[in-house]
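Late entry, written up from scratch paper. The run itself happened at the end of the previous shift, but nothing got recorded in the book at the time, so transcribing now.
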Amino acid sequence: MSSNRFFVSESSIEGDRVTLGAEQAHQIRHVLRLQVGAEIVVLDGVGSEYDVTLTAVGGREVTCQVTSKRPAQGEPRLQITLFQSLLAREKFEWVLQKGAEVGVARFAPVATQRSIMRAKKIDEKKMTRWRRILTEAAEQSHRGRIPELEQAIDFDAAVPRLSEFDCALIAAPGDEFDALGEALAQPKQDITSIALLIGPEGGFAPEEIELARENGAIPISLGPRVLRTETAAVVASALILYAAGEMQPGKDR
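Output as recorded:
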């Protein structure tokens, strides 16, 4: 199987013919320097992946011939929605990239009391950049789907949504809170969706933790060491997926 993977829209796949647009054509021709006859993998983003052979490599378009099709690989059964407090640009983009690599299914930016960025609509230029980061991370890490990205909302608007998930966790440093493993070990129904709330640099305000608890979230501690918020987001996501058996070598392959 080729290690070069590209997400395409469903409309780009017509029968056994696939067309890639200008941006991907540039990468194939000028960065990877692939030629006619080379093999790559394309993914439709809705559950299928295709082995294809390049049949024409142009400056603005690449066409391919499908040689095989199969269910997309690399997607965890457990779907994590990461409610990440808005951070400085570099840190937030790092969370998007590494969270996508680990296996986060959806990112929901949240404006909290201590967020550097306050609640406002993220402009389309930034959303486009963030979606590109998620796409490239998903391709690099052999995901089967591109993680979803939501528009930013206030914390008070995010909390009522916790009832949509089988389990909700909010990171809250302190000896009085359960360790992540203990929280996940509590008797529950079969869990397929988790909401994970990660605060800003200064952490969640006490009243935010209490509001989340009132709406069903379990406050959790990630241990005796204080992690940066961007570190906590990725570590917690990875630990959740590990506990669910989603980090085993060869899973879904």
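The chain has a mean pLDDT of 90.
(Scratch paper discarded after transcription.)
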